[in-house]
Design a protein that fits this description.
The complex is a heterodimer of chains A (about 70) and B (about 675). Chain A is an alpha+beta fold. Chain A is about 15% helix and about 40% strand. Chain B has 4 domains: about 160 residues, P-loop containing nucleotide triphosphate hydrolases (Rossmann fold, 3-Layer(aba) Sandwich), CATH 3.40.50.300; about 90 residues, Orthogonal Bundle (Helix Hairpins), CATH 1.10.287.1770; about 230 residues, no CATH class; about 140 residues, no CATH class. Strand 4 of chain A pairs antiparallel with strand 10 of chain B.
């Protein structure tokens, strides 16, 4: 499944990050690399973006960006 | 011997606090050339020979944002004597990612392990000695907020700088990548040269900027190696490099950091965040905070008490009154000693120019005291989180909300608030459209027209529709700028939501002071010079001093009035109004008062408040052309004070002029449409 489909409170391991390019690099620079544990904390009041916990800090990203991240629960 | 030490670190890692602590108030703030990124340097307060350069906060040295390019250019090209890399001990893994890249440049480096007090209170332990041994650079535990460990840090930094102690190469990558990097460095020249090694890493990472620096004769050989490395890395060496760096860090952290079991417990910051970005409460809380921000700075009826000015307005009033008394005294003195009329006029206009700058300082001060509090506390990141959904449709960041909201009070502090936006592109676009928000000084113009020409219509609706027009034009403007002027730059929202922290008073004060000083000096010169220039043009002609009706400005108004014919107001007085409006928009009313039949100062006050009409303007304006004129003055170049603020924030005349050109064209097109469509309908 993708990170986008995960509900707040759910946790998983990143398996891959789609589409090469600037966004992939940015996501990886921020510590979302294959194998890392990631947990969805909450969804913004207007429904997008989402907040996740990764490598001990809080990261926010848009749902479109989260859709690129494959996660295994 | 003088040495230069650069500070590098992630955003929110306490870099600014550290910079303030080691330099004190001796700072110089400017812009990096061509971008809206702040450049700060200062002198170490305990040793004048040590210059500290504050690099922009970055997560990485990849070339994807203005900040990252500046930070790495500064490290790689200017080669400071040492780099202090500040690491937030509470999110050590992500912070060490930058550390590895700083060490890759092989510049003498010291790691400052910050927030050690928070690390301890969480019950975690970081073994700095072990970390230093593995990384091959000194690691000094510090608490930047309280100043703990800073002497040791600076001693370590000065010592590695003097000893030119280059960090060793770390074994981060696998054989495929290491061989490729070594091979590329070999083609570039001496493979042991640290600059070649760094470039080689970047080339294997598919870095376009470094790719362009490869000499043509070596390009084919380099490309072949890079392609082979990419193939072996599953098609994406760039991603694999990032992955290996994090794998290396994970091992490092396992060895040097002991997390307590308490770590999974909720911190105060987590609890606070649950309330502040709660699904139901977030928007009301956000609205209240924004109201407080706006009301404290601009409100005339603070806390809903009629007639009670907000701290910002009150201070502005005090400055204005004191300056007015001083100005009167000086002018009186000049007249008393028998100075000629033009000399008195010159003195008076110079004082006006300074007064125009001084009057804005309280607003800038109050807004930035509050803004730095929001920024340092971590709430600003949540503003973006909450508002992103709306603003992304216009190609902007959620943080653009604050400058645009403040624009309804006054463009000057609003433009300066654009600094909190994350990307250079967002900052530039926001600055270009913020003046479209109708500021307080434009209201008297609308009131004058509403009470004179729209007597039989719904006056409130006329004024309200002008405000809405500004918002709509701003949105369309943002969309067009995004599509055409900044098309190459993509926006994303991959952003850290930092821990909430109580800001230190010192850092809030220093930040607000910097803003006030920056505006007074950098914007002040622009405002002062233009105010005096317009005074000269409006009170002289070739034969000397004269009334405005016969001045250069009047001739100028006559010469250019044809330009405005398609907008419906080809009248020299209307053109002159546009120009005097640049000193301050409400000046248009006073100018009209004078040019349309010389009404008294009291009458001008009454017209500004919408209590009296100025019937003479109906000779020139119809309802449609009046609306077109209001729209033009809303959208065209803002007052000189705002232009000064744009110049100060853009840091370049080129971008300032582009912004003005964009605003003038927008104003013309919108007013033209209003006039054409309006005449068809009415």
């Amino acid at each position: 499944m993708t990170l986008r489909e995960m509900k707040p409170g759910q946790q998983g391991k990143v398996t891959s990050i789609g589409s090469a390019g600037t966004m992939k690099r940015r996501i990886m620079d921020m510590g979302v690399t294959p194998g890392v544990e990631i947990k969805v904390i909450k969804v913004a009041p207007l429904g997008d973006p989402i907040e996740v916990n990764v490598r001990g800090y809080e990261l926010s990203l848009r749902k479109d960006e989260a859709a690129q991240i494959q996660v295994q629960q | 011997m003088s040495i230069i030490i650069a500070l590098a670190g992630n955003p929110n890692c306490g870099k600014t606090t550290l910079f303030n602590e080691i330099t004190g108030a001796r700072q110089h703030v400017g812009n990096w050339p061509g971008v809206t990124v702040e450049r700060k340097d200062g002198v170490y307060k305990k040793d004048k020979n040590v210059t500290i350069l504050d690099l922009p906060g970055t997560y990485s040295l990849s070339p994807y944002s203005a900040e990252e390019i500046i930070a790495r250019d500064c490290i790689v090209k200017e080669r400071p004597d040492a780099v202090i890399n500040i690491v937030d001990g509470t999110s050590i893994e992500r912070n060490l990612y930058l550390t590895l890249q700083v060490i890759e440049t092989r510049i003498p480096t010291v790691v400052a392990m910050n927030m050690m007090d928070e690390v301890e209170s969480r019950g975690d332990k970081i073994d700095c000695g072990k970390l230093a041994k593995i990384l091959g650079v000194p690691v000094v535990p510090i608490v930047a907020r309280s100043g703990k460990g800073l002497d040791e840090l600076m001693k370590a930094a000065v010592s590695v700088a003097n000893a030119k102690q280059k960090p060793n190469r770390l074994e981060v990558f696998d054989k495929n990548l290491t061989d490729a990097i070594h091979g590329v460095a070999d083609i570039l020249g001496d493979a042991e040269d640290e600059e070649n090694q760094w470039k080689a890493i970047k080339l294997v990472e598919n870095d376009e900027i470094i790719g362009k620096t490869v000499p043509a004769d070596k390009k084919a050989a380099v490309d072949a190696l890079v392609q082979a490395a990419n193939k072996n890395a599953g098609g994406d060496a760039e991603a694999q490099i990032a992955d290996y760096r994090y794998q290396y860090i994970s091992k490092l952290v396992k060895e040097c950091v002991r997390k307590s079991l308490k770590g999974s417990r909720e911190t105060t910051s987590d609890k606070l965040d649950k309330i502040l970005t709660n699904r139901i409460l977030a928007l009301p809380i956000f609205a209240v905070i924004m109201y407080i921000l706006f009301a404290c700075t601009f409100s005339e009826n603070f806390l809903f008490i009629p007639g009670l000015p907000s701290p910002g307005q009150w201070l502005a009033g005090v400055v204005e009154t004191v300056w007015g008394i001083f100005q009167e005294a000086v002018v009186g003195l000049a007249e008393g000693i028998g100075a000629s009329e033009w000399a008195v006029g010159l003195v008076s206009s110079c004082l006006d120019g300074i007064g125009a700058v001084a009057g804005f300082l309280p607003l800038v001060l109050v807004l930035f005291l509050l803004m730095s509090f929001l920024e340092d506390s971590g709430y600003m990141a949540r503003v973006a989180f909450v508002m992103d959904r709306i603003f992304r449709h216009f190609g902007l960041s959620g943080r653009s909300f604050i400058p645009m909201l403040m624009g309804f009070g006054c463009s000057v502090p609003a433009l300066m608030a654009s600094r909190t936006l994350e990307s250079d592109k967002d900052r530039k676009i926001t600055m270009m459209i913020t003046p479209f928000m109708s500021c307080g000084a434009k209201l008297p113009i609308y009131l004058m027209f509403a009470t004179t020409l729209f007597v039989d219509s719904n006056q409130t609706l006329v004024v309200f529709s002008i405000y809405m027009l500004g918002i709509v034009v701003a949105i369309i403007g943002a969309l067009l700028l995004n599509k055409f002027a900044f098309a190459a730059e993509t926006s994303n929202f991959i952003m850290e939501l930092p821990q909430y922290r109580i800001p230190t008073l010192r850092s809030v004060l220093i930040h607000a002071w910097e803003k006030v000083k920056g505006f007074a000096i950098k914007a002040g010169t622009v405002i002062f010079a233009s105010t005096v220039l317009i005074w000269f043009l409006s009170s002289f002609n070739l034969s000397g001093m004269c009334d405005m009706e016969e001045s250069f400005l009047a001739s100028f108004g006559n010469a250019i009035k044809w330009i405005f014919a398609p907008l419906g107001w080809a009248d020299w007085r209307a053109s002159v109004g546009v120009v005097t409006g640049w000193i301050a928009k409400e000046n248009i009313v006073a100018t009209f008062g004078q040019l349309f039949g010389g009404v008294s100062d009291e009458a001008v006050e009454a017209i500004m408040a919408g209590e009296e009409a100025l019937p003479a303007i109906s000779e020139v304006f119809t309802k449609v052309s009046a609306y077109s004129y209001m729209a033009f003055n809303l959208l065209c170049m803002p007052c000189f004070a705002a232009v000064g603020a744009i110049k100060r924030e853009m840091g370049s005349w080129k971008w300032t002029l582009r912004a003005i050109a964009f605003q003038m064209c927008t104003a013309y097109v919108v007013a033209l449409i209003i006039n054409l469509v309006g005449n068809l309908i009415f």
